[in-house]
Backbone:
């Protein structure tokens, strides 16, 4: 499968300051990390010293350190410290391979392609007011399968919990970008939206990074997140089951 | 003096070593040649624990087996503040017991995969890894939901013996070929546990290195 | 994988287990350089080892040596001699075998890690090293042509708990010796007997190019600790290394320049790689510089 130029690596809210996470793509393994001062960076998951995975490393201040020998690298991939030789300025030839990393409207995007393509416009064009991050969920299914089912699945609106199960819901499905799916679920005057950013890990596994808007009041946010998270777990189970009965319950009725 | 029948590479023994260190309770270890000696399967050790398993704790003559039972005993006897095993609130108690019991599910899967991959034990490793992933999804979903509610621990907003019981074989899962990369809730929880005061590690579990260590 | 065609690797004496791993009740069924093998106790108590076919039938009998608490065999016709360790004859020493640990990586990576000093503060924290004493002072590494071995001398590192017998921190002196791509021994300051060396040895059994079983031993002067305590200390150290070993990319050792960037502290490993290149070894070596693909998830 071809490597797309820009990928969604995760939700900004999921990457804490001073932490590193592994990100798999069909062509390469990455480590995405956040400096203490807040900036997110992406690097090839391999230290240039002895090939150790950076995703098992640790963050010191604004530097990423390799777990094996403690070599430290800044956000541009330059090696700043070699503990075995503390008085030595590391040669400039020692650097980690970095990738452009941008955070837009709550998503972390990484430029993994060899081209010089700009970041796809659809991420910055998302209406950013009140986007609430929920979680990332990973499914044992291809990105095509996941997109196919998301584009027709009946999300039970948060508001319906209060109004009752017979409430009429109007669904609109939208594909604002190749790997972006939006579902809007309208009940009466309330319009709830879910934004799914899809990430292909490999042919059979897909990450889905989910944010919502228009759901519940500010005090209700934890309940909203729980509601959506549980529905995502349900979606994951049904979609992976390959069972027609389970899948039928995902669809909107004709 | 508490005696702990111990194997350094055992995650179940480590639960007790970790908790005793957090409680600040002194103990001495009685090393048992689990591997390659298989001492735990022999008659002398079976006299101490007929199940032939580690850990076993001997507290001044009271002998108790089973890591989760030992944690409950130690919390009751030595945790004066009563936060590690809260038995006053039925809901908290119920949650703690539920996640304490879940630790057995983690041991049966993740620990088994690790014994196969590291020490060459003969068992169905594919089933073990599949079972570990199934358990980790449940654990990850739960931890993420806890975070929504502003709670960071398995049974509520305080760490409990359930967290200690579930921690080791989750943290060691990669030893058995079970990758934790997509379980973000679990990864954040592991980081929290490692940053607890008086945390100690075991081989296969790395310390958090937020700040450079200063000379003693 | 089928038996390797690497002529150098085939003509080495290679470990396949401890003496105790082969009993009358239980043969040791394992693999060496891609070749399935079976080790059994024969009627007279000695150990016999055979190549086996995929259904387990015994084929060619292999030459066997029982030495240093372990069983060694060779798949080749004209093997290089197995190393000599005269310390095994010394009064007062104890041999403790550690048991094997299985690691999914090249056996050459396992040996190279054993030779490394810079990782002590990060991987063996508060045992073999700790911040801020991270500096690796200059030492000497060379190929000794007369014996065809790699040696590193004048190595030194401050250690909080250098061995099971250590009660205080000490400045440990080390010497490293590599006698085969798969065999290495270190000699380190004995904490209790000034002037003497404790030995720690590593025999790596290469099953496949990216799968091995690391057998090791200690041969110290030690009167205080039981065999089990010494064994547990070594297992602790090795199990701290294992997650590192399994997460180096690529798994096979790259010998082409440019893929990995050494520092001066890596002198022993650079010498080891130079020696491997001279031997034209291919088993466990990264084949193609362009084939940098990450190992399968």
Residues:
């Amino acid at each position: 499968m071809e490597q797309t130029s820009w990928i969604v690596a995760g939700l900004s809210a999921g990457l804490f300051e001073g932490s590193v996470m592994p990100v798999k793509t069909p062509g390469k393994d990455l480590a995405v990390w956040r400096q203490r001062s807040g900036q997110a960076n992406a690097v090839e998951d391999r230290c240039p010293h002895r090939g150790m995975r950076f995703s098992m490393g640790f963050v010191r201040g604004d530097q990423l350190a390799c777990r094996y020998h403690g070599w430290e690298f800044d956000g541009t991939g330059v090696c700043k410290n070699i503990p075995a030789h503390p008085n030595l300025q590391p040669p400039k030839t020692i650097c980690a391979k970095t990738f452009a990393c941008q955070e837009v409207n709550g998503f972390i995007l990484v430029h993994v392609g060899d081209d010089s393509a700009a970041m796809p416009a659809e991420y910055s064009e998302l209406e950013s007011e009140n986007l609430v991050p929920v979680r990332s969920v990973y499914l044992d299914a291809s990105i095509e399968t996941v997109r196919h089912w998301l584009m027709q699945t009946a999300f039970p609106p948060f508001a319906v919990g209060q109004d009752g199960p017979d409430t009429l819901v109007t669904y609109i499905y939208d594909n604002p970008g190749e790997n972006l799916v939006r579902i809007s679920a309208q009940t009466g005057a309330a319009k709830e939206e879910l934004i799914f950013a899809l990430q292909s890990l490999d042919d059979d596994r897909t990450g889905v990074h989910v944010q919502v808007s228009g759901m519940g009041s500010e005090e209700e946010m934890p309940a909203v997140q729980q509601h959506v998270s549980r529905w995502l777990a349900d979606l994951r189970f049904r979609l992976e089951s390959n069972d027609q009965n389970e899948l039928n319950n995902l669809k909107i009725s004709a | 003096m508490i005696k702990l029948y111990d194997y350094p590479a055992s995650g179940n023994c480590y639960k007790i070593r970790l908790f005793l260190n957090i409680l600040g309770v002194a103990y001495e270890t009685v090393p048992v040649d689990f591997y390659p000696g298989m001492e735990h399967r022999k008659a002398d050790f079976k006299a101490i624990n007929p199940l032939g398993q580690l850990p076993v704790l001997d507290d001044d003559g009271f002998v108790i087996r089973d890591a989760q039972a030992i944690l409950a005993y130690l919390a009751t006897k030595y945790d004066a503040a009563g936060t590690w095993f809260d038995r006053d609130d039925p809901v908290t108690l119920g949650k703690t017991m539920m996640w304490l019991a879940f630790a057995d599910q983690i041991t049966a899967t993740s620990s088994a995969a690790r014994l196969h991959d590291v020490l060459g034990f003969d068992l169905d490793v594919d089933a073990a890894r599949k079972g570990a992933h199934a358990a980790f999804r449940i654990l990850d979903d739960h931890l993420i939901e806890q975070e929504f509610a502003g709670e960071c621990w398995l049974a509520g907003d305080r760490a409990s013996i359930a967290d200690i019981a579930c921690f080791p074989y989750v943290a060691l899962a990669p030893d058995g070929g079970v990758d934790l990369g997509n379980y973000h809730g679990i990864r954040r929880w592991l980081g929290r546990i490692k940053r607890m005061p008086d945390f100690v590690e075991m081989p296969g579990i790395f310390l958090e290195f937020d700040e450079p260590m200063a000379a003693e | 994988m089928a038996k390797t065609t690497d002529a150098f690797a085939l003509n080495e004496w290679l470990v396949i287990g401890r003496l105790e791993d082969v009993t009358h009740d239980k043969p040791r069924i394992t693999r060496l350089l891609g070749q399935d093998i079976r080790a059994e106790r024969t009627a007279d108590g000695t150990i016999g080892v055979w190549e086996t076919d995929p259904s387990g039938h015994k084929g060619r009998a292999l030459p066997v040596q029982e030495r240093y608490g372990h069983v060694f065999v060779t798949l080749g016709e004209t093997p290089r001699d197995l190393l000599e360790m005269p310390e095994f004859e010394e009064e007062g020493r104890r041999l403790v075998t550690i048991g094997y640990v299985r690691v999914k990586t090249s056996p050459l990576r396992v040996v190279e890690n054993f030779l490394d000093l810079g990782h002590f503060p990060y991987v063996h924290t508060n045992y073999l090293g700790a911040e801020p004493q991270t500096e690796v002072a200059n030492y000497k590494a060379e190929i000794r042509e007369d014996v065809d071995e790699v040696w590193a001398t004048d190595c030194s590192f401050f250690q909080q708990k250098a061995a099971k017998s250590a009660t205080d921190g000490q400045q440990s002196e080390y010497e490293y010796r590599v006698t085969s791509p798969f065999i290495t021994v270190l000699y380190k300051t004995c904490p209790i007997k000034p002037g003497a060396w404790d030995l720690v040895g590593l025999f790596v059994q290469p099953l496949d190019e990216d799968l091995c079983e690391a057998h090791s031993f200690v041969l110290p002067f030690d009167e205080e600790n039981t065999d089990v305590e010494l064994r547990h200390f070594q297992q602790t150290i090795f199990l701290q290394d294992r997650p590192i070993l399994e997460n180096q990319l690529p798994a096979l050792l790259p010998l082409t320049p440019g893929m990995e960037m050494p520092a001066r502290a890596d002198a022993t490993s650079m010498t080891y790689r130079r020696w491997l290149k001279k031997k034209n070894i291919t088993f466990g070596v990264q084949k193609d510089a362009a084939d940098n693909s990450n190992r399968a998830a």
Chain C has two domains: 7-73, 86-278. The two ends of chain C are 20 Å apart (CA to CA). Chain C is about 15% helix and 30% strand. The first strand of chain C starts at residue 14 and ends at 18.
